[in-house]
Design a protein that fits this description.
The complex is a heterodimer.
Chain A lengths: L1 H4 L16 H5 L15 E7 L5 E7 L1 H5 L3 E6 L22 E2 L5 E7 L2 H10 L1 E6 L6 H4 L17 H6 L16 E9 L2 H6 L3 E9 L11 E6 L5 E5 L4 H12 L6 E5 L15 H11 L3 E4 L2 H7 L5 E10 L5 E11 L8 H10 L6 E8 L14 H19 L3 H8 L18 H9 L2 H4 L1 H6 L6 E11 L8 E5 L5 E5 L7 H13 L6 E5 L16 H28 L6 E4 L2 E4 L2 E7 H7 L11 E4 L9 E11 L6 E11 L6 H20 L30 E6 L21 H13 L10 H10 L3
Parallel strand pairs in A: 1-12, 10-11, 14-15, 18-19, 25-26
Antiparallel strand pairs in A: 1-5, 2-4, 2-6, 3-5, 7-15, 8-13, 9-10, 9-12, 13-14, 16-24, 17-18, 17-23, 20-21, 21-22, 24-25
Helix pairs in contact in A: 11-12, 12-21, 17-18, 20-21
Chain B lengths: L3 E7 L2 E7 L5 H8 L18 E4 L2 E4 L12 E3 L12 H8 L9 H14 L5 H7 L11 H20 L1
Parallel strand pairs in B: 1-5
Antiparallel strand pairs in B: 1-2, 3-4, 3-5
The chains are: A alpha+beta, B alpha+beta.
Chain lengths: ~775, ~160
């Protein structure tokens, strides 16, 4: 097998290659769900509850049904398999007798035109009896709070499982409080003694609101049934097999009767993992016998999408005067909205595991409220958690007069150190990225740069470190040799960010051809090998591993055929420029095209080359990123201007530097949005007060400088060519880095996101330190 | 409501199409003319995914009624490059690997094209303001700004070579 492992001199891994579907994307030819228009298409619209919590007394759909052009009007009564106790948001297709958040679907319409469907919504009469609502998670936790779930509160940990983010070491028995759906506690050592022996005790509460992923393409799906009862869904999804399973479960249809075609996905960031509008669209298509398309509006996305949870972290630390860590005590409250599904364990692991705390007591609660239920958003709960711990570490260093980098470095974990859940840290580049960012001239010259501020504007420099454990999921891939000597790679991987070109590069390097000889296809659920989600920073780490193994399998088969044809030992063969030759005998050879053709000839005895791999995984590859901001604060208005922003990230091996940089830059800007401008704002009645992109501000090009990216490569032991996941780490550190820079500039310690001009200006007036 | 006849020029071709008077230009382009390059990301003019040119000016086509385009020249992403060749902006976007999910890209390119027609050699800041009406959630804008700047340089040198 030594032949298989030689370094191949091909244009493959490590080369910056633009994605081959770029021309389709820049010419507007790429088709998203909303661009597909089959004959007889109907348009769906949903009537949504105007109340956060209300009993549905009656629904009258007669006028809507009578409107010309309306083909179906559905309420929960028309879908008999809907259960009153919906375990997930996807199962709550339409509200049965009670709406539990403002924007919950109550009735559905399919009509010839979107405008007719909208008119029909206006004709549906719903009588509500408004009930008291639990909006604030802290109040929702109290005894006597209005209950959210129907009968008892059940945890849905499938999101955590889907991300396979962290093992939950210890869960407590179901809680007594009515709206607490998950709770966990991790303890080690004597925390009380640790605090008693500390010289410096710091306690702060950090708050991060619900934020929306903001994928530019709203949720969309097209459903059609054939005469054999086969349902086809053209879906904007991060995982077609996952969508198939969820729709099957919700509607009680066998999975083999559902085909999910993953159409080009206009962004997901975790928000398009779970099913949302697929089940109701499928039902509308069933009852009308026509193809039905549902495209959410942006307003619907903001009101009733599946945002990231609100997170409140009360953090207390004790350290010695010299910075020795003694004890950490934390309480994390995650507002999951109306259904359970937050990744609770991530918070405890990163609060307690990034630095080596000898004693800890970490408690986490998932709380249900009458608000839209949450889902993953790129590194779920990590940016919120790191905002707390990295703000806190900076404050400790500042209080004790310690160098913030040296203080972190002294206590930072490395491979083998135990996490709070008892598992050991896998190989990672945490120390390397922190060291690398501390070498940056912007950090080394920070005092001079700050001193050079003028016009009354205050300058500050701040940094923070963040990490992600890396997701895992079994997956499959095939690699086929074509009769022209090129390779065809097949997976079910949804390519959003440009992962397919990187997978092609992996196949090229593993097989021994240039990347331009590899074409990769994302198959639908009928044809592709079972493939996991595009989520959790695991596409390259897991699907890449499958592609690598499948390509090595194909190479081995190719070499066996060539050895037979050339009557040579497999160990004497080499593959160069699409031709296998016997080493030292350049004239004795056979081309890949010849082998490929022999596999497709009538009466040929040569088997067609088909490499396959279907691995499962157990070893995670944590990815760390450090970010640095140089910014100015206008003390009168609280406005922040970011002058420079640096992203340093350990990616293990940059398979395609273009894609890696794109992830680092895009993730950082999403992180900066969470830091500075974003937040879903609910009033006391549970009404969203900023349901448009005018009032919910995402960062634009004019808000930002060019971002500097520095790639660090600490190879992961198990990843393909040493690669680690790249997607999540860059969204994690910025809120803390910005908070630390704002403190450097103004002396004010901001503990609530977003750090809007109003909050900063108020902190300066109130002298929050 | 009775449909009305919309006559205008789209991507250099005269078109005549029946539309409802309440239909937006975006919907007319997408649903009636089959030009699905312009996207609806918000429907309220905040995201820029629907950006097209009307008489050479940038317009959020989700905020304009189709009938307001009567007698005017509309250009969409489908009319930016040639059949075989990419516009230098499109070419730069491909080479720099700008598109990720790609949903914002048609709108960003139309905003950038209008900017370069008005200001052939924009500064980085001018580019950033030129595409400030276009949200992108994948790229972080850095590669986008670099690609637009490079395309501006290429267009300028093409012009001076003529």
């Amino acid at each position: 097998m030594s032949t298989m492992k030689t370094t191949r001199d091909v244009k493959g891994v490590g080369v910056a290659i633009p994605r081959p579907d770029g021309p389709e994307k820049v010419t507007g030819r790429v088709q998203y769900v909303g661009d597909i228009k089959p004959k007889g298409l109907l348009h769906a619209k949903l009537l949504r509850s105007p109340h956060a919590h209300a009993k549905i007394v009656s629904i009258d759909t007669s006028a809507a049904r009578a409107l010309p052009g309306v083909r179906a009007v559905l309420t929960a009564k028309d879908i008999p398999h809907l259960k009153k106790k919906a375990p997930t948001r996807a199962h709550a297709v339409l509200a049965i007798d009670r709406a539990v958040f403002m924007g919950q679907p109550v009735a559905a319409v399919a009509a010839d035109e979107p405008s007719i469907a909208e008119e029909a919504l206006d004709l549906i009469k719903v009588e509500y009896q408004v009930l008291p609502a639990s909006i604030d998670p802290l109040k929702a936790m109290q005894p006597g709070a209005p209950p959210v779930a129907d009968a008892g509160t059940e945890a849905d940990t499938s999101e955590a499982l889907a991300h396979s983010a962290v093992a939950i070491a210890k869960s407590e028995a179901p809680a007594k409080a009515v709206n607490i759906s998950q709770q966990a506690r991790l303890q080690r050592g004597d925390v009380a003694k640790g605090f008693a022996e500390s010289d410096h005790v710091l306690e702060k509460t950090y708050r991060v609101p619900m934020v929306h992923q903001g994928y530019l393409e709203p949720h969309a799906v097209l459903a059609e049934w054939d005469r054999n009862g086969l349902l086809t869904l053209w879906a904007s999804t991060q995982g077609s097999f996952n969508t198939r399973s969820e729709v099957s479960d919700v509607l009680g249809i066998p999975e083999n009767q559902i085909r999910v075609i993953p159409v080009e996905c206009g962004g997901g960031f975790g928000g398009k993992i779970r099913a949302l509008c697929e089940p109701i669209t499928a039902v509308l298509a069933k009852v009308t016998g026509r193809p039905v398309r549902y495209v959410m509006t942006r307003r619907e996305e903001l009101i009733a999408g599946m945002p990231a949870p609100q997170v409140i972290i009360r953090l207390k630390t004790g350290v010695k005067r010299d910075g020795t860590l003694m004890a950490i005590d934390a309480e994390t409250i995650i507002d999951s909205g109306a259904f359970s599904g937050a990744v609770l364990a991530v918070s405890a692991v990163f609060i307690g595991s990034m630095y080596k705390w000898p004693s800890f007591d970490l408690r986490g609660f998932e709380v249900l409220t009458h608000k839209p239920s949450v889902a993953a958003y790129r590194a779920p709960v990590a940016p919120q958690t790191i905002f707390a711990i990295e703000s806190h570490m900076e404050q400790i260093a500042r209080d004790l007069g310690l160098d913030p980098v040296e203080f972190r470095m002294r206590h930072l974990i490395q491979e083998g150190d135990p996490m709070v859940n008892g598992q050991p840290w896998q190989s990672n580049g945490a120390k390397q990225v922190l060291a690398r960012i501390a070498e940056h001239p912007h950090w080394k010259t920070r005092k001079q740069w700050v001193a050079a501020g003028k016009d009354g504007r205050r300058r500050g420099v701040g940094l923070a470190l963040g990490g992600w454990l890396g997701g895992l999921q079994p997956t499959g891939a095939t690699v086929r040799l074509n009769p022209d000597g090129s390779l065809a790679v097949l997976t079910g991987q949804v390519d959003i960010a440009g992962t397919n070109i990187a997978l092609a590069q992996i196949a090229a390097s593993a097989y021994g051809v240039d990347t331009d000889q590899v074409r990769i296809t994302t198959g639908d659920t009928d044809v592709a090998p079972m493939t996991g989600l595009s989520a959790g920073s695991k596409t390259i780490y897991t699907v890449g591993a499958a592609v690598l193994q499948a390509a090595e399998d194909a190479r081995r088969q190719t070499f066996e055929i060539a050895a037979k044809e050339l009557e040579a030992s497999i160990h004497d063969l080499e593959l160069v420029d699409g031709k296998l030759t016997v080493r030292g005998m350049p004239d004795k050879g056979i081309t890949l095209a010849t082998i490929g053709k022999k596999g497709n000839l009538y009466m040929s005895k040569t088997p067609p080359v088909l490499g396959k791999a279907n691995p499962a995984f157990s070893q995670q590859a944590p990815g760390f990123a450090a970010q640095l901001a140089r910014l100015e604060v206008d003390p009168d208005t609280g406005e922040v201007t970011i002058h420079d922003f640096v992203v340093v990230q350990d990616v293990g091996k940059a398979i395609n530097p273009i894609g890696v940089e794109g992830q680092m830059q895009g993730g950082a800007v999403q992180s900066l949005g969470i830091a500075l401008t974003e937040g879903l704002l609910f009033d006391d009645s549970g009404r969203l007060t900023n349901p448009s992109l005018l009032d919910y501000r995402k960062l634009t090009a004019a808000d930002l400088p060019n971002l500097e990216t520095i790639i660090v490569e600490v190879p992961s032991p198990a990843g393909p060519f040493g690669a680690r996941g790249v997607g999540e780490p860059p969204i994690i550190p910025a809120p803390a880095a910005i908070a630390n820079a704002i403190q450097d500039a103004t002396g004010a310690r901001l503990t609530e996101l977003p750090m809007s001009p109003e909050r900063i200006a108020l902190a300066l007036v109130n002298g929050t330190h | 409501m009775a449909k009305q006849i919309l006559q205008c020029t789209v991507n250099g071709e005269p078109v005549e199409v029946l539309v409802q008077p309440y239909v937006t230009l975006l919907d007319a382009l997408r649903e009636d003319l089959g030009l699905t390059g312009p996207k609806e990301g918000c429907g309220t003019g905040d995201c820029g995914a629907c950006t097209v040119h009307v008489d050479g000016k940038v317009v959020a086509s989700c905020l304009m009624l189709a009938m307001q385009a009567r007698g005017r020249k509309v250009r969409t992403i489908e009319g930016l490059g040639g059949v075989e060749t990419l516009h230098p902006l499109q070419d730069a976007f491909v080479r720099h690997g700008v598109p990720q999910c790609g949903f914002c890209i048609p709108g960003v390119l139309m905003a950038a094209a209008a900017l370069l027609e008005e200001n052939p050699r924009p500064s980085e800041e001018q580019i950033r303001y030129g595409i400030a009406g276009n949200l992108c959630r994948c790229t972080g804008y850095t590669k986008m700004v670099t690609a637009i700047s490079e395309a501006a340089g290429m267009l300028a040198s093409q012009r001076s070579a003529r």
